[in-house]
Structures are given as C-alpha cells and as structure tokens.
Amino acid sequence: MSMDSGCRALMAPHHTRRTTEESLMTRPTLVHLGAMLVMLSSGGSLNAQVVVITSVKNPVSSIKRDLLAQIFLGQAHVFPNGAKAEPLDLPQGSQLREAFYQQFLEKRPAQLKSHWSGQTFSGRKQPPRMLNTSKDILKLVAKHPKYIAYVDQSAVDPTVKVLRIE
Description:
two-stranded parallel sheet; D-Maltodextrin-Binding Protein, domain 2; 7 helices; alpha/beta; 2 domains
C-alpha cells in the first residue's frame, strides 16, 4: 500500500466509514435471524403466553410459585388442598418448555438437566412424565385432576382451567 492510498483512507469523510459496532446496531445479525427462524420452524411462537393448567375437576384455582417449582422439580407431590399432584412436561428442546421453566422456575435447560441427572443417578426421584405435544397434555389433564402442566394460552380449552400463580 502506497503512502498516498493510506492517507486517502485515513482522510475519508467519517460518514462513509462504519464501525463494526454501528453495523451490528443498524441491522439484525444472522444469529438473531437464525434464532427466530429456528423458533418459528419448531412450532414455537415469538409471542407464546405460557399458562399453568389443571383439570376443571380439580378444585384448586391458584398455586404459589414456590410450590409450583417444588412440584416440577420433584420436591413436592401435592396441590395446596393436599390432593396428589403430578406434573406433565413437554420434550427437551421445546420452546414452550424452555419458556415455562425460565418464567416460572427461573431455570435454564442446562440447570434442569443437571438437577435431574443428580436426582435420577441417586435413584431418589424421576423427572415429570413427558408427553410429545400440548394436545396430548390437554387430553390427559382433562381426564385426571391430579395432573398439573403448562401450555400456550391459545391452546386452552373448556376441559382445563388456568391456575393463578401467586
């Protein structure tokens, strides 16, 4: 590079040069676009509203956040009224599952994996029963008042009720 071309590059007007930081702030990165595409293609929704449900046959209408966490982590097995509670889960990698655990239990997937690895290795506890779809969860929850689960609010039907989280 000659001295002249180097000087011209340095003397170019500021508005024609962009820093990497400015470029990233003015347009979405491929990582952001890729994450949105993965979420949409996996059936997830960018606006998913996760709700906790049980059967309409269950007299419970609310649950404390701490008890909800204990039930889904295998540390408690009853609803606030003393009736048996069994959690139902969606498969690992499900966007709805990740949203539920983050929103209500403040746990990331790696933390859950670590928790259940320790529990199952010691033989003390098993993770919640896993079903493949929200539709499967709705069918089972509707039939049995002992189940507690989560779905997208748009999936709620008259056979289940949304629990208020305290």
